[in-house]
Amino acid sequence: MKTYSVAALVGSLRKESLSRKTANALAALGPASLKVQIVEIGALSLYNADEEATPPAPWVEFRDKIRTADALLFVTPEYNRSTSGVLKNAIDIGSRPSGKSVFNAKPGAVISVSPGAMGAFGANQHVRQMLVFLNVPTLQQPEAYIGHADKLFDQQGRIAIESTREFLERFMQSFADWIATNAKN
To answer: For a tag site, which of 19, 20, 150, 157 has the least CB within 10 Å?
Structure first.
């Protein structure tokens, strides 16, 4: 069985964020064929094309980590009915300069997380919109909008609600199948 490396981009910088907890839970719930690692985005300065001649070291490191991954998992909170600025900035850095996107043709999936009932639907759709432009073939089903996420985790950070855990296991298995179908080699 082939193992695929998955770069997880978490759209919240808080150590105890619901998005980070979800990414960690997904890494644990995924099939053995997926090796999920969070790629940190907090040290990325705001994208400025003037810096492309000599990109900052965090940009280079970030781009290298994404470039070597087989697939992408975006875990986003919702801020003002969209994704977070920090995740948008990471996407901008990875997709530039034009024609040199590190995201190109890598299979991806989006999961959105919110303490609210709508499960960050707006953020999920905004990330998907960007991924279409970036040529990231994105898992369509199952869609994953996780509402009331503030009630999901036990003290160890595991998913405490069985039906949600089962859904996330199916989501990760579907993602693994999607990657196997769409990965380059």
So the answer is: 150
Q: Are 19 and 90 in contact (CB under 8 A)?
A: no
Going across the sheet that includes 108-113, the strands are 34-38, 4-10, 71-76, 108-113, 145-146
Amino acid, res. 144: A
pLDDT mean for each 10 residues of the chain (185 residues): 95 94 96 98 97 97 98 94 95 96 98 85 94 97 93 91 95 98 86
Question: Alpha helix locations (H) across 18-161?
Answer: 18-29, 57-68, 85-95, 121-133
Q: What is the pLDDT of residue 185?
A: 64
DSSP annotation of 105 reads: T
**Tokens encoding 123:** 């953020």
Element (H, E) at 75: strand 71-76
- The total of other beta-carbon atoms located within 10 Å of residue 84's CB is 21
131: left (phi over 0), alpha (psi -120 to 50) or beta: alpha
Q: Domains for the chain: give ranges and CATH numbers.
A: 4-182 (3.40.50.360)
Structure pTM? 0.96
Q: What is the pLDDT of residue 118?
A: 72
Distances (CA, A) of 21 to 11, 26, 127, 152: 12, 9, 19, 10
Which pair of tokens denotes residue 155?
A: 């003290």
